[in-house]
Amino acid sequence: MAEDISDTSSKAAPGKDPFDGVRWDMTGAMSYGGYLQLDRLLDAQRPLSGEHDELLFIVIHQATELWMKLGLHELEAARERLAADDLEPASKMLARVARIQTQMIQAWEILSTMTPFDYSRFREALGSSSGFQSFQYRQLEFLMGAKNARLIEVYAAEPRVHERLSVALHRPSLYDEALRLMARRGFAIPAGKVERDWSLPYEADAGVEAAWLEVYRNVDRHWDLYDLGEKLVDLEYRFQQWRFSHMKTVERIIGHKRGTGGSAGVAYLVKALEKGFFPELLSLRTSI
């Protein structure tokens, strides 16, 4: 983390040089910019139109992709911990993702300062590129259980990305691993939820809801599972907030035009809000 030298100077002992000990000659040493590869990172913003607001558009989307990269890193590790019956580190990872999601949601607040006129001045420069094509977003959906094999077709021209998403499609989701863990703990999880074709979308099951109800009605006995359930609810809650903010920002900027990638734009984003991830964790609340 970069140091605020103006702050350190105010804390220095009277008469002591606040820069005493600073390494000025970085020749041959690992520098801040070198460690973070800032030369590559800050050279990755390449506006095509010359319009002022295009840089804002690029930075917001690139920053979001970085946050999604970190979110995937944490959620994949959490899934591995669930598969190993190790809930404590999984809980910490899920809590971290909640903070990451807060940053992603806030990004729409910044982008919403761009007016329809501002965006119209460079929209043609995007060509057919679209957030619909974000493979990390699609991987996040798959990891959380919203599987749809058709959605990887758009990556046919990118074999490495297509393969990455195909692997994600056919692996158990975070929720699948949570249910398998519960089955190993002795809960009556239906057999079809423990072993199945993981590429198919998850469908709610009364038996799964009954198992979660047992957890929620006996919190002291099943605290770690209860905590896991609430962490998953929080994950979905924030994901839906992100989707909603995305939809409203798009509506504010382009109205109901079609998206640059050919999607229905706002109508598509509204439809996406109907796709949940952990249905029994929400439906059980009616029964408590």
- H/E topology pattern: HHHHHHHHHHHHHH
Rg estimate, integer Å = 23 Å
Beta-strand proportion: under 5%
Largest sheet: none
- Class by SSE composition: mainly alpha
What does it look like?
By secondary structure, the protein is mostly helical. It is 60% helix and 0% strand. It has 14 helices and no strands. It has helices at 5-11, 32-36, 38-41, 54-83, 87-111, 116-120, 135-144, 159-169, 174-184, 191-194, 206-217, 223-254, 266-272, 279-287. α4 (54-83) packs parallel to α7 (135-144), α11 packs across α14 (279-287) and α12 (223-254) runs antiparallel to α13 (266-272). The longest helix has 32 residues, at 223-254. The protein is globular, with a radius of gyration of 23 Å.
Short description:
By secondary structure, the protein is mostly helical.
Secondary structure elements and their pairing?
Blueprint: H1 5-11, H2 32-36, H3 38-41, H4 54-83, H5 87-111, H6 116-120, H7 135-144, H8 159-169, H9 174-184, H10 191-194, H11 206-217, H12 223-254, H13 266-272, H14 279-287
